[in-house]
Amino acid sequence: MALEAAEEMEDACTWVVRVCGRVFVAFALGLIVSGASILFVDLLPTFSATQALFAVPPSLFLVFGALHNYLAAVFTSPGYPPSDYHITESQLNDMHQRRKRGQPVRDRVCRSCCIIKPPRAHHCKICNRCVLAMDHHCPWVGNCVGYRNHRYFLLFLIHVTLLCLLGACLSFNTFWEAANLQNDFSFGYSGRGGAIYVFLLSASISFGVGLLCIWQLYLVLTGQTTIEFYSNSDLQETAERIGSTFVNQYDLGAARNFEHFFGFAWTNLRWFIPMCGQTTGDGLSFPTTTYQPSAVTSSTTLLV
User: Fold this and answer.
1) CA-CA distance, 192 to 133, in Å (whole number)?
2) Tens digits of per-residue pLDDT, 43-68?
3) Cα–Cα–Cα angle for 285, 287, 213, nearest 5°?
4) Mean pLDDT, rounded, of the chain
5) 223: nearest Cα among 265, 190, 191, 255
6) Annotated active-site residue in 138, 144, 164, 213
7) Which residues have C-beta within 8 Å of that of residue 299, sequence separation ≥ 6?
8) Is the pLDDT of residue 148 over 70?
9) Which of 212, 225, 210 shows the shortest CA–CA distance to 144?
10) How far apart are CA 41 and CA 37, in angstroms?
11) pTM of this prediction?
């Protein structure tokens, strides 16, 4: 009974996320555009020419970067297994029966999609299909974050975090003046509300999105997705329990992981520029590190 209730709740949540995806996207765009509009229309014109010279160019760059990468994450397909990975129902049942008999089955399969799952691919219940190198389904982009749009998603987080930190710094003095109702304010009641809105919005988003950005950067530098982090944690516990060593075969080292993800070495700042770089590879195979045959690795059948 409890299991049925949990499944019904999961189905309801899946339906809500699927239906409300566009609402979340519109809301996120509204926050970015409204905050940027008040910053440029109300706050920056009050700065001196010297202050504006240092404030306007990075603000424009980060606003453009945030919007470009956000829209790219929304509208770029995360990547799906090609048609030649599909198998027949009889082949699927045969593989399932062999696995039940304890016979080795090399391929990972998805019963919902009736396909052979490439390495690192997972089935998304919300999209109802398998996604290459799936990280998670993000309601704020109304899309899965996978192989082909993960880079845009992380760059969006980086640009938004930096933009909000900059916005909070630029609006702090104005916010402090506006928050003190006993002081005369330079551009009226609407300007007072705008200053408070920009600072509180920037400070709160830079904190929340910044934490997510740090988490995603950690995953990239360690050669993992969000899904793999949890499965790798289970495998590491299993390895410790049997006296073995866990090896994440997709962890090539921080520098190589960064370059494989962004398409540039971290010393080449083109990785940070919108519309520069592209995802490398095809999402069907990935470079792996060398490991000892006796080690428990991230390709172990415990993942299936």
Assistant:
1) 46
2) 888 888 888 888 899 999 999 999 99
3) 95
4) 84
5) 255
6) 138
7) 119, 249
8) yes
9) 225
10) 6
11) 0.87
Q: What is the dihedral of CA 83, 88, 91, 96, to 10 degrees?
A: 90
Q: How many CA atoms lie within 13 A of 53 on its CB side?
A: 3
Q: In percent, how much of the chain has pLDDT > 90?
A: 49
CB atoms within 10 A of CB 83: 7
Task: Go through the chain and tell me how many residues it has.
Answer: 304
Other CB atoms within 10 A of residue 264 CB: 16
Q: Among the listed ranges 83-92, 138-147, 244-253, which one has the minimum average pLDDT value? A: 83-92
Query: For this structure, is 138 an active site residue?
Result: yes
Nearest to 279 by CA among 134, 145, 147: 147
One-letter amino acid at 103 equals Q
Mean pLDDT of 184-198: 62
* Beta carbons within 8 Å of 70's beta carbon, 6+ residues apart: 28, 29, 32, 141, 152, 156, 160
For residue 295, give the amino acid letter: A
At 102-147, the pLDDT tens digits run: 666 667 888 888 888 999 999 998 989 999 999 999 999 999 999 9
C-alpha separations of 215 from 64, 85, 88, 198, 211 in Å: 23, 32, 39, 25, 6
Q: 3-class secondary structure for the chain?
A: CHHHHHHHHHHHHHHHHHHCHHHHHHHHHHHHHHHHHHHHHHHHHHCCHHHHHHHHHHHHHHHHHHHHHHHHHHHCCCCCCCHHHECCHHHHHHHHHHHHCCCCCCCEEECCCCEEECCCCEEECCCCEEECCCCEEECCCCEEECCCCHHHHHHHHHHHHHHHHHHHHHHHHHHHHHHCCCCCCCCHHHHHHHHHHHHHHHHHHHHHHHHHHHHHHHHHHCCCCHHHHHHHHHHHHHHHHCCCCEECCCCCCHHHHHHHHHCCCCCCHHHHCCCCCCCCCCCCCCCCCCCCCCCEECCCHHHC
